[in-house]
Specification:
Mean pLDDT: 91
Shape: globular
CATH superfamily of the largest domain: Methylmalonyl-CoA mutase
CATH class of the largest domain: Alpha Beta
Distance between the termini: 83 Å
Number of domains: 2
Oligomer: single chain
Low-confidence stretches: 466-471
CATH topology of the largest domain: TIM Barrel
Helix content: 40-55%
Structural class: alpha/beta
Number of strands: 15
Largest sheet: 8 strands, parallel, barrel
Number of helices: 21
Radius of gyration: 28 Å
CATH architecture of the largest domain: Alpha-Beta Barrel
């Protein structure tokens, strides 16, 4: 009989019900929920998604509600806009950087304005010098002021009129009028949202007629994203900002369609790859629904979406890892269909980025486009059961939060009443707990730290002054790595003062095979706090370990070994170590039912996965005299 080739049909996959029965059997009584992964914002990721979770999208790309992007062919015609952010502080140096970057692949310019962290553009002449090497007729220029949101717009228009001449129809970019972001930063005493938008209304109307590619208004999530907002809150508060702009501009005589077409949205992309893709897709969905409900025409429902890599996820320690973080975040932004993307230089947390930092940031996107060919697929996320379902879940959660904000009177009132600040405090507290317990690990900082790394030096920025007036406090930018980095900073100061790092004597009990996994973990944890581990093993007895400890030049001893050895060995080892001058004896692992006995034997603290490692390391610093 002739051989009959086998096909996929001969091996049908198990049904979902069959898969679930097999999983339940393997779980051996544990609930199915243990396979779910919690997300911030009250959402959960399932272990498996099927067509029943998310049917194939019915609308193609380029059609309302624009979940799949605003262009019918996605990025396949020219790709997304590679945008670079600039914040100074030196206007002349930034002008040179603009020239160099535009010659090497940058396509758009995003200017962060206002001292101390932004460019100090005081007048038209300064802005003209800044843009001296920028071909304005073909380079989109976006402003993001943090203080006076109207004056920079007039300055840019004056420069454009002088340099670009009559080619207004070709101009692209945004003027950055975003009074709610300014309200969040400075308080109600300095920002009147309604009055600002009323003053901007004639400009909105004129630009739509004379320069339709130049958007007057900006909706930036930066104040909240940098201060620790979850994806749900960032999404909801950004849409709420757009809603308030629609409402106020309509009162000033601008139709919803015109107002929507005048807005540029700018969202941050954090470290959770797939949820961030879903967030940007959900943003377009929600905005389309909002504009449609406001009476806006279908073409005005398309969101102009800029994505920036998040500042909160970047680290000062081992900053080279920021290159990987920026790559993943840029990748997510492109897959989600962002119209333009800014990749922050890896050295941005250290101060003013240098040429190398800007080049690596720029080349990240060039490689994604020209070598990874991400511009050759329209909506690469489309049809993924996982991403389609997650997009819907994020949109529904953000819509619920949007309704809550509207019930408070809108996002301006929510800010002025302190509601936004209160929510940010709650989310930062929860995230900080996850960081301290390493449920949210940070490579190079709380995981796999490089204790002897060579520091990367950059020109430091001026300190951010206290802002906010009236009844609210402004959201404070925070990076998730700051707590653990403070421990490394203290270790550096100790090293500068004493010539050595703070040290721990590690007594590893049992055979190498028995203690290696745990002792390696402990050495890693100590390095997170800037404490150098001095490891020893193979002791004849406790007294032998104590003799070695006496020569180690430290007051901290850490005992690491298999749990089975602890009940019998710990009392003798702890007593011997303390007799030789150990002020603190820590033990690796959970004490379990033996905690009372171990503490009675003299154990001071326990180091184990799931503990508040920041607080434990802070305690060790205190006991070692590290300030």
């Amino acid at each position: 009989m002739a051989d009959v080739p086998l096909t996929a049909a001969d091996f049908p996959p198990p049904s979902v019900e069959e898969w679930r029965r097999l999983v339940d059997k393997d779980l051996k009584g544990k609930p199915f929920t243990v396979l779910q992964s919690p997300l911030e914002g009250g959402l959960s990721l399932q272990p498996l998604y099927t067509p029943q979770d998310a049917p194939a999208p019915s609308e193609p790309p380029g059609v309302a509600p624009y979940v799949r992007g605003t262009q019918p062919l996605g990025h396949t015609e020219g790709g997304w806009l590679l945008c670079q952010e600039y914040a100074g502080p030196d206007v002349a140096a930034t002008a040179d950087a603009l020239r160099d970057d535009l010659e090497r692949g940058t396509q758009g310019v995003w200017l962060l304005l206002d001292a101390p962290h932004g460019l100090d553009v005081k007048d038209e002449a300064t802005l003209e010098r800044l843009l001296a090497h920028v071909p304005l007729e073909r380079t989109p220029v976006h402003l993001e002021p943090t203080a006076d949101v109207l004056r920079p717009a007039s300055l840019l228009l004056a420069v454009l009129a002088k340099k670009a001449g009559a080619a207004k129809q070709a101009l692209r970019g945004s003027l950055g009028i975003d009074p709610i972001a300014a309200l969040a930063r400075h308080g109600a005493a300095k920002v009147d949202v309604a009055r600002t938008l009323a003053e901007a209304a004639p400009l909105v109307t004129s630009l739509l007629k004379d320069a339709p590619g130049l958007r007057a208004l900006l909706v930036s999530s930066r104040p909240w994203a940098d201060a620790g907002a979850t994806s749900v809150h960032e999404l909801a508060w950004s849409i709420a900002t757009g809603v308030e702009y629609l409402r106020e501009l309509e009162r000033a005589g601008v139709s919803p369609s015109e107002a929507a077409r005048s807005m540029q949205f700018a969202l941050s992309v954090g470290g959770q790859f797939f949820p961030e893709i879903a967030k940007l897709r959900a943003a377009r969905l929600l905005w389309s629904k909002v504009v449609a409900a406001s009476g806006g025409a279908p073409e005005s429902q398309a969101m102009s979406l800029h994505a920036r890599t998040a500042s909160a996820t970047k680290t000062r320690r081992d900053p080279w890892v920021n290159i990987l973080r920026g790559t993943a975040e840029s990748f997510a932004a492109v897959v989600a269909g962002a119209d333009s993307v800014s990749t922050a230089p890896f050295d941005e947390p250290l101060g003013t980025p240098d040429e190398q930092g800007r080049r690596l940031a720029r080349n990240t996107q060039l490689i994604l486009r020209d070598e990874s060919s991400l511009n050759r697929v329209a909506d690469p996320a489309g049809g993924s059961y996982y991403l389609e379902q997650l997009t819907g879940e994020l949109a529904r959660a953000a819509w619920t939060e949007l309704q809550r904000i509207e019930a408070l009177g809108g996002i301006s009132r929510a800010i002025a009443q302190g509601d936004v600040a209160s929510v940010l405090t709650e989310t930062r507290t929860a995230r900080d707990k996850a960081v301290r317990t390493r449920k949210l690990p940070i490579v190079g900082v709380s995981e796999f730290p490089h204790l002897h790394e060579a520091p990367v030096q950059r020109e430091a920025r001026a300190a951010m002054p206290a802002q906010g007036e009236g009844i609210i406090a402004p959201p404070v930018p925070v990076r998730v790595s700051e707590a653990f980095e403070s421990l490394r900073d203290a270790s550096d100061r100790y090293h500068a003062a004493h010539g050595v790092r703070p040290r721990a004597f590690m007594a590893n009990l049992g055979t190498v095979a028995e203690h290696t996994a745990r002792s390696s973990w402990i050495a890693n944890v100590l390095a997170v706090g800037g404490i150098e581990a001095n490891e020893h093993h193979g002791f004849a007895d406790a007294n032998a370990a104590a003799e070695l400890f006496a020569k180690a030049g430290t007051s901290l001893a850490v005992i690491s070994g298999p749990d089975a050895l602890y009940p019998e060995a710990l009392p003798a080892y702890v007593a011997a170590l303390k007799a030789k001058g150990a002020r603190t004896v820590a033990v690796a692992g959970r004490p379990g039912d033996h905690e009372a006995a171990f503490r009675a034997a003299g154990v001071d603290l326990f180091l184990y996965a799931g503990a508040d490692l920041f607080q434990l390391l802070k305690t060790l610093h205190t006991q070692l005299g590290v300030a």
